[in-house]
Amino acid sequence: MSGSWRAGGAEWSVLVHGGAGQRSPESLQVAIGSCERAAGVAAESLAEGGGALDAVQRAVEVMEDTPELNAGTGGALCTDGSLELDASIMDGAGLRAGAVCALPPFRNPIAVARAVLEQGAHVLYASAGAAAFARAHGFEPVEPATMITGRARTQLQRAIERGKAQLWAGGTVGAVARDRDGHLAAATSTGGLPGQAPGRVGDSPIPGAGNLADDGRGACSVTGDGDAILRVCLASDALARLAAGDAPGEAACASIALLEARVGALGGLILAHPDGRLALARTTDCMSWAARQAGDRAASGG
Asked: In the 8-state DSSP scheme, what is residue 206?
């Protein structure tokens, strides 16, 4: 295990991540700063009595708007140079979920996923269907050039030169939270892998794999090798461990170790327990993160 962290219970709490992978020291500080801003926005909402669902959406939107992270603006590019975005959000109270995948450029995919949760006839919309849903519910597509960065183009070129898609240096973003009413929520957003095939979908928009929330068990957001995470249903595994009585830190470490042991893959995850305890674990070199809890408790790292 390369790294882990845990915190005790609280009336409300939020934990966010900016993706597992490798980063230069300078890039890592930028990612941590984005996580701190995201956790701060969510904490402000929770401290004022806001719900966990709003908190995780707002946190992820901050990170989607950070070009150095792989979600929303600055997301990884497919082999044809296009930007396809995945996002999911889940409400632990009623097990409601909304997700989009292979979504063309819309500024905040997590907001579209929230609209799916609230207004959609289905849980998951893909590609042109996701775009049509977004437009029908008031979201405007944007010019791809406004969301595609030079860093993303460089990562794509490296993937093409290597002849295969590569794990993004910083990966997916996500958030988990508990509100004052004891409800949990989780949200996850990603641009996928540099050099992935158009139409490829990883774990992030899939409940039980990259994202999951259940008031009775916990909330989880995952980052790393999405194809491998799908194969072990990692978020579901982590929550099953919480339900069996494992402490959050133990559950996080055991689940992320399972990913490496069973399918030889690396990644990270964040967890929120129903009592507000928080934990994270990673097997990658770094994973930017930040946490806030009632009582002005704050922490961050990478």
From this structure: S
